[in-house]
Amino acid sequence: MKKILVVGSMSVDLTIETQRMPEQGETMKAEFLELFCGGKGANQAVSIARLGGAVDILGCVGSDTYGEMVIENLRKNRVGTEMVGRSSSALTGTAHIFLINHDNRIVIVPGANDTVTPEFVEVQLTRPFSSYSMVILQNEIPSETIRFIVKRCQEEGVPILYNPAPADVAAGDLMNELTFLTPNEHECGQIFPQWTLAEAVGKYPNQLVVTLGSKGVIFHDGQTIRCIPAYKVKAVDTTGAGDTFNGAFALEIVRGKSIAEAIQLANKAAAISVTKKGAQGGMPTEYERQQFNS
Ligand code: ATP
Ligand code: RIB
Fold first, then answer.
1. How far apart are CA 288 and CA 125, in angstroms?
2. What is the arrangement of strands in the sheet containing 225-228, beginning at the earlier edge strand?
3. Within-domain flag for 27
4. What is the CATH number of the domain that holds 56?
């Protein structure tokens, strides 16, 4: 089977657990800081690899120790890192995460992720896009790069899954070129403000797949709206649930599953992932997913 290619961000997540956010002008103490490997691109690639998929990632880190940590983690998870660059000027991207009541608020500092320009992609790419079964994109690299890759993949006939997170209101302009657009409910509302959720999925059957957190996923199968429920678990940290879902969904589509089957398997992987801390901490292997009983 051909490999999957993820082009996207790779970062270090600095997670602080607190009871609440500080008020304006207030200083608060947190118990501890934890460092995890994250970034939406890296998370999605690791999700695929843990589930047994063959995957490469193209992106950039700095020449700092965080960069070493990110690359080592990708390698440990069997993600192909041949196309990961090291910037001599920009620092490795970081995400500053406040974990409050098992939910999160995130501020990202893109750093080297912002150096993933179309020119950078041309230089780093060692194989044509057409040698991959699917290309996966998110919005933590420059938007001109997203557009460049979408155009190239369309020319080369490569399926594209675009997870428009964080939201880019212009993502809807690319619908003619995409195989799947996978926003969460909030992003879907920002991209298609003219429509309700039901109207939006109805406009793009079998293409617009919207994640609804603990409620599951909604899409239109061409005949009717389908809601595939999430699995019930005790959530500890939902950071990266969307990334686990996207990686797993893409892999199951490439493996030949129907959209509904792929969503169900991806929901299961994402539910398992939220039971542990860190975006990648709870991502299951194929065996762990098979053993899971909700
Ligand atoms: P994030 O930005 O935190 O990575 P997201 O907002 O992109 O996530 P969500 O819609 O919150 O994505 O979640 C993606 C999928 O993860 C859901 O469709 C569901 O399958 C699973 N999921 C998320 N939260 C829970 C939960 N509390 N319990 C079970 N499954 C969950
Ligand atoms: O989707 C979760 C990811 O978003 C985190 O790992 C963090 O890096 C943020 O960018």
1. 33
2. 210-211, 217-220, 225-228
3. no
4. 3.40.1190.20
Provide the number of structural domains found in the chain.
1
111-127 confidence digits (pLDDT tens): 999 999 999 999 999 99
* CA-nearest residue, atom 21 of ligand 1: 270
Active site residue 103: no
Structure tokens that stand for 200 in this block: 């939006």
Q: Is the CB of 233 under 6 A from ligand 1?
A: yes
Residue 64 burial class via C-beta count within 10 angstroms: exposed 0-12, middle 13-18, buried 19 and up: middle
Residue 167 Cα, ligand 2 centroid: separation in angstroms? 13
Measured CA to CA, the distance from residue 290 to residue 185 in angstroms comes to 28
Place of tokens 């912002």: 114
Q: State the Cα angle at 166 between 161 and 168, rounded to 5°.
A: 75
Which structural domain range is residue 95 located in?
A: 3-22+32-284
Return d(Cα 169, Cα 34) in angstroms, integer: 32
| Domain membership flag for residue 163 | yes
Tell how strand 80-87 and strand 132-138 pair up.
Answer: unpaired
* pTM of the model as a whole: 0.97
User: In ligand 1, which atom is closest to the CA atom of 216?
Assistant: 18
pLDDT (tens digit, 9 = 90+) per residue, 187-241?
Answer: 999 999 999 999 999 999 999 999 999 999 999 999 999 999 999 999 999 999 9
Determine the Cα–Cα distance for residues 137 and 263; give it in Å rounded to an integer.
18
Question: Do the domain assignments include residue 290?
Answer: no
The span from the CA of 77 to the CA of 260, in Å, is 27
Catalytic: which of 56, 168, 237, 243? 243
In a domain, residue 57? The reply is: yes
Helices (H) then strands (E): counts for the chain: 9, 13
Nearest-angstrom CA–CA distance, 17 and 33: 7
> Hey, what are 270's tokens?
């994402």
